[in-house]
Write a structure and sequence with these properties.
2 copies of one chain form a homodimer. Chain A is of the alpha+beta class and 348 residues long. Chain A is 33% helix and 22% strand.
Chain lengths: 348, 348
């Protein structure tokens, strides 16, 4: 068989590598280009400017069958705020572009924007522009966000040092579990469209999936306690994938203790019901929008009283990403986080 | 028949109006939000920052059947540069997000990016980030651009004053004619896929459609001659639509003289062949990415020697947009420029 001259796109990371190898930086103001959660421009009066962008596409990032449009608008802003948080910055402005299929009415788009406005209100952000166009198929939302470092140090993925403590905010796995419940109920409804989904007892995990929040509160705590994480990333693709980004950027390894990974009680309960391992949900589920960060041991001692931050392991001098199981066994962790080009997670 | 509770989306302008009525500006740094070619932030060390974003969607903004991917990448940057030019600014940085269908290979995306890189090189812009994801259907390109006012006055749509001269850079209608040729050849090819399109003699109009340039040279001329247009917009939707934006924002009317509208010789020839009126192409065609601007009479006297700028009319104190035909007849101009929600132009 003749070999195709074309190389299929195998992963987002590899595609970005291909694209960026020809990128040349010409402006002095560009402090950081491609390669972190946000770009950094050094042209503000005070501090530095953080820029990030995320695109949400119907059928890839959301299913309109069970995604209320107001929540979708809200989430589209949150996922971008989370990128600014992960650089230790404060979000200030957004641009929102929409590709709108003709099945959507003005009222639908108003509902979507009610969520956008609510997120802007809750997080003190100005909506300053965008582009609105028709789309021949699904709904597309592309958001660009601007943030401000406010004269405090920016936290990159690349600063983790050996013996730093690895921490995570909040709890993990809930967003993925919410998605599983929604998919299950959709399937039941498709088989019998008279059935009414009973979703009350899944409120926590559904909120984690449909209407997540961004951890600006964690950034405020760092500011207040005069702490700067040595590295930080937000958990959008799953702990396994996002810790791997910190490790490769910082040229370090990590040891994570399974029994330290924070899972909420509600998530535990849903895991039991669905017979899924909570650890697997945390590692490979994604969309939790919690912050994963490293602290020098001296800074760690200042935050041990903060319940929202859980130490889950520490940085090592090697390059191994190791999970120490609840039984004390070391397991080499493979990055199996979410990648839109792979579409489906294989091992969950 | 029961009336539907939903209002169909009738035009982009009306949709934007609906969306923005709930927008509240909270930050002092926001000098201009929604409502011009770019937003303006007053937080730079020197000058002000200009921000704009444009989304190109397969099947709405381009047809992959006849759009080389390198040109498409180039054009996606140009249309954004043009928005910065229309504010009298200089482009500096871009973020490029892609939604990639699985029919595209790594090589296709590299080709697209070769055009992005070329535009960045030609216009001295840094590519600093973006988002890359899969798309279930067509290719999506969403670009956000940043520009710098470099301590010179920003030109808004709203500054046109009575008796100002209305000018346009370059020539109009070519991009629309290029599209007509491409559509004609596609139809011929679809009927007989052995036919080879002969496109040599249409090079000018095809370039205007497939690989336009942005008028940064005009901004340099303004800078050099210490001139500031009183209002400016880029011609993306067609002269009729874009002059209407200046008029409504500035609360003025205009009188345009048909015989002054610049049409290139090549465009004239293609118009004759296709039996289309060159004036109609200029008025309603769009995608020329030329600058439409107004100058106070005293500044106008400084640029009469610049061949690239054609005076096409003047600002009036009323609100009428009037075209004086070649026969001297006044015609009331209706905005029939390109709107993606209308999909098809009705009167061309």
């Amino acid at each position: 068989m003749k070999k195709s001259p074309f190389t299929p796109i195998s992963s987002e990371a590899r595609l970005i590598k291909q694209i960026t190898k020809h990128t040349k930086i010409k402006h002095e103001s560009t402090k950081k280009g491609i390669g972190d959660d946000a770009a950094v421009l050094g042209s503000l009066k005070n501090g530095e400017q953080l820029l990030s962008t995320d695109m949400l596409i119907e059928g890839v990032h959301f299913d309109p069958a069970y995604t209320p449009l107001g929540h979708l608008g809200y989430k589209s802003i949150i996922v971008n705020i989370s990128d600014i948080c992960s650089m230790n910055g404060v979000p200030t402005h957004v641009l929102v572009s929409l590709g709108v299929p003709n099945k959507y009415s003005t009222e639908h788009i108003e509902e979507l924007y009610s969520g956008v406005h609510k997120a802007c209100q809750n997080y003190n952000i100005d909506l300053i522009g965008g582009d609105t166009t028709s789309s021949p198929t699904g709904l597309i939302i592309s958001v660009t966000i601007f943030g401000d470092s406010e004269d405090r140090p920016i936290t990159y993925r690349h600063g983790a040092g050996s013996n730093d403590i690895l921490l995570v905010s909040g709890s993990l796995g809930g967003a993925y579990l919410g998605l599983q419940i929604l998919e299950r109920e959709k399937e039941i409804f498709n088989k019998n469209n008279k059935s009414q989904p009973v979703l009350d007892k899944y409120q926590h995990v559904l909120e984690r999936q449909l209407k997540p929040e961004a951890r600006t509160d964690a950034i405020s705590i760092f500011k207040e306690l005069k702490i700067t994480p040595t590295s930080m990333i937000d958990i959008s693709d799953g702990l396994s994938s996002d810790v791997a980004h910190i490790c490769s950027s910082s040229n370090v390894g990590v040891k994570i203790f399974e029994d330290k990974i924070p899972i909420s009680k509600e998530s535990q309960r849903v895991c039991e019901e669905l017979q899924i391992s909570p650890t697997i949900c945390a590692l490979h589920g994604g969309e939790d929008y919690e912050l994963l960060f490293t602290l020098s041991p001296k800074d760690y001692s200042k935050i041990t009283h903060i319940e929202e931050f859980a130490p889950i392991g520490h940085v090592t001098s090697g390059s191994d990403i190791e999970l120490v199981s609840k039984l004390g066994e070391p397991i080499s962790l493979i990055d199996e986080g979410w990648d839109s080009f792979l579409r489906k997670k294989q091992n969950i």
